Amino acid sequence: MIDTGQTAPDFTLPQDGGADVTLSALRPAPVVLYFYPKDDTSGCTKEAIAFSGLMSEFEAAGARVFGISKDSVEKHGKFRGKHDLSVPLLSDEAGDVCERYGTWAEKSMYGKKYWGIERSTFLIDGAGNVARVWRKVKVPGHAEDVLEAVKAL
Asked: Which residue, of 7, 68, 125, 133, has the fewest CB within 10 Å?
């Protein structure tokens, strides 16, 4: 499980719209990676809208923000279009990055156990180290909290 102070695992993932994003190529910008369970569900939509609403402030602070789920780039594109999202979304269909960041976890709903993405956010500093980790994220106020942490870097 990735924790504060560790080097963030590097990756290359496809972004909606067709480009690939490589984490290490974004240096020296700070990077926010928020992992979420599924496009177009209530909590995930609220989270994406919240990060999109603050994108200009994240950019002003020099940070890049990306949402990551196992949904396809095509589904991400439809999700972004439907909700007019400005936050770029990365597709981890194979789940490799989710596993390396420890967000692929056993969950439980209505007494039924299943595997899925645990809503988590990682703030990576300009040197590629994990500066802050939020696990089991509650959506209200989260994007604002992350923005404050970015500004404090």
From this structure: 7
